[in-house]
Amino acid sequence: MKVAILGANGFVGGRLFEVWRRRGPHAPRAVVRSPAGLARIARFAEPDWRLADARDPAALAAAFAGCAAVVHCVVGDERVIAATVDPVYRAAAAAGVRDLVYLSSASVHGQNPPAGTDENSPLRDDQPISYNNAKVRAERRLRALAADGRVRATILRPGIVLGPRSRWGTDVVEALLDSRAWWIGGGAGLCNSIQVDNLVHAIEQVLAKPEAAGGTYLVGDAETVTWRDLYLGLAASAGRGAEAFAEAIPAGIAPRGWRERLGALKSSDPVQAVLPWFSPRLKGAVNAALARWQAAPPGNPWALPAAPARPRANLEMTLLFACATKLPHEKAARALAYRPPVTFADGLRETIAWLALAGYPVTPPAKD
Asked: Residue 257, exposed/middle/buried by CB under 10 A (0-12, 13-18, 19+)?
């Protein structure tokens, strides 16, 4: 079938387009916001593509025309997450699309979910990480829209998506090469990983099982993976070991101070709406004053060099490294016949091979 991939210039959307162009089973149509987003798919002969902003229902409806399904792979901050649910659903309905696959996140359950968490666990939108809350609200809104029955909306909740081009590979290797790599607790926490090709498999299974469409599914790798497994696997490819990782200071959950409140106020919709009325000179003067106000005092030129400070983890990574729960995908296995085809070891090997191809000084491990 013809399937529109919204956000085909991103990590997951780009991989989905590449896989389907190579082997099927579907004919992909890339839908991106600007011509620059076509860079990765332009290497294919006569790729099917459309330009449309994910917040423009008219442009989206035209881009979805003739498609049986849409995969919503758009990534972005909280505003993008919130702003793309209604237009995408309404455009899909207007274009006669039957299935919409929405890529949410296992983060709706938090980065360190309690034991026993599954798809039926209640969701909270007052978590300390705003991305989680945005995804929870997006899921709720999509469910409310899909109640009209015009489009079957299926929600997938992947965890940490690994594979070629994943930031979870490039960021760690770059940190290793720059001698600034770290972890918490020796990396003993669980990483709810999913290889990107396993996520592609999950999307294919949704489209192959119309009787299970419209559900919500957690999806992940078959193995129970720790952060240590991932980090040491990447480190070995660069000739490093556990000694390359400093033990970071975990973040605490503290109430927001006046600086954080001021930043939140500045980024709020009402303030952003009135900012265009102020002159650039006035806004520049205010920003400069705030920068001087918040700047750290100058250091003492006569002081002895301080010992290297331990890295400080942000709240998200602190919670991820503390994770003790392996999220289940039994529901996806039953309803979708989801069987992750790529092992963690093979996915890591493919990731490192891509890093080497991209010019990083790494060596892929040999196959067992």
From this structure: exposed
Q: What is the pLDDT of residues 161-180, one digit of tens each?
A: 999 999 999 999 999 999 99
pLDDT given for residue 145 in this prediction: 98
DSSP at 102: E
- Rg of the Cα atoms in the chain: 22
The CA distances from residue 350 to 52, 117, 283, in Å, are 32, 30, 48
The β-bridge partners of 49 are 30
Ordered DSSP codes for 218-272: EE--SS-EEHHHHHHHHHHHTT--GGG-EEPBPPP-----HHHHHHHHHHSHHHH
Cis status of the peptide bond prior to 25, with omega within 30 of 0 = yes
SS3 state of residue 2: strand
In the chain, what are the domains? 2-169+190-223+326-342 (3.40.50.720)
Buried b (16+ CB within 10 A) or exposed e, 312-346: ebeeebbbbbebebbbebebbbebbebebebebee
CB atoms within 10 A of CB 44: 15
Write the CB contacts of 255 (distance below 8 Å, at least 6 apart in sequence).
none
Q: Tell me: the pLDDT tens digits for 102-135?
A: 999 999 999 999 999 999 999 999 999 999 999 9
Predicted pLDDT at 367: 76
Q: What is the mean pLDDT of residues 325-342?
A: 98
Ranges assigned E (strand) in 73-198? 99-103, 152-158, 160-162, 182-183, 190-191, 193-195
Q: Does the global pTM surpass 0.70?
A: yes
Query: In whole angstroms, how far apart are CA 117 and each of 110, 125, 148?
Result: 10, 16, 29
What's the CA gap between 108 and 62, in Å, rounded?
Answer: 31
